[in-house]
Design the sequence.
């Protein structure tokens, strides 16, 4: 009789870093490479919003500052961890918007449209306590 040892597969985290810029097309293409095609449009919107926030609001578009992204494909989900070099902000404690309506209100809340998009697109949205690192998860079936 042969005994098998089952160990959980550790995700292979990939890293990329780029100077603060709003030219994100090649970066988004790379981050979505292993994502099912059905989710591309939705996740492209969410990741673009997160990267713009990091470069524009976090790093103030300073070319001397970088945005870093760690990402992995796990058996049940995709994960992205986006870090900027800014001063940080106080993250919202939970989704800060009203239930979806037919049209997004002009000013949906004090958190802004970008945070509304993040909470709509991703299954988990978490910031570190400094507000400079954002973790995003999207579950796949």
Sequence:
């Amino acid at each position: 009789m042969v005994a098998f040892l089952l160990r959980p597969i550790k995700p292979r985290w990939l890293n990329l870093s780029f100077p603060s810029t709003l030219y994100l097309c090649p970066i988004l293409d790379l981050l979505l490479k292993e994502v099912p095609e059905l989710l591309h449009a939705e996740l492209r919107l969410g990741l673009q919003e997160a990267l713009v926030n990091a470069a524009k609001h976090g790093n103030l578009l300073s070319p001397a500052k970088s945005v870093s992204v760690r990402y992995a494909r796990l058996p049940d989900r995709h994960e992205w961890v986006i870090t900027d070099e800014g001063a940080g902000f106080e993250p919202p404690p939970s989704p800060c918007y009203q239930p979806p309506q037919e049209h997004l209100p002009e000013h949906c809340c004090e958190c802004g449209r970008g945070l509304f998009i993040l909470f709509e697109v991703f299954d988990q949205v978490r910031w570190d306590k400094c507000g400079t690192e954002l973790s995003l998860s999207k579950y796949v079936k």
Observations:
- The first strand starts at residue 14 and ends at 19.
